Amino acid sequence: MSILDGYLAEQLSDALINADIPQSAVVTVQETSGPAWEPVITDVPYDCSGWIDTYSTIDHVDSNVQVNDRKVFIVASTLAVTPVPGNTVAIAGSTFSIISVALDPAGCAWVCQCRT
């Protein structure tokens, strides 16, 4: 647990929302049900808030960040599930596949490397 967790994450989330930075977004996760020998995979959408950012040039050097990848921030308090690679996020008229996910140090936002 970080000293930034909890209260600070709540304060940062509230500040972002009050500043009208996040946009409406939908994270779609795949949930499995049914027996193991015949699983049923269902896409389940979860409404949330977030924003899109770009990677700097240095982020592309010696990494798996491709030129057209985007950094999508999802306000953690607005999402009922934990995003994972393979999920999708629809935001600002675009749909992206989530390649990697990390929680920012304050626990305020999920930082997703996304690809079209």
From TrEMBL:
Protein name: Uncharacterized protein
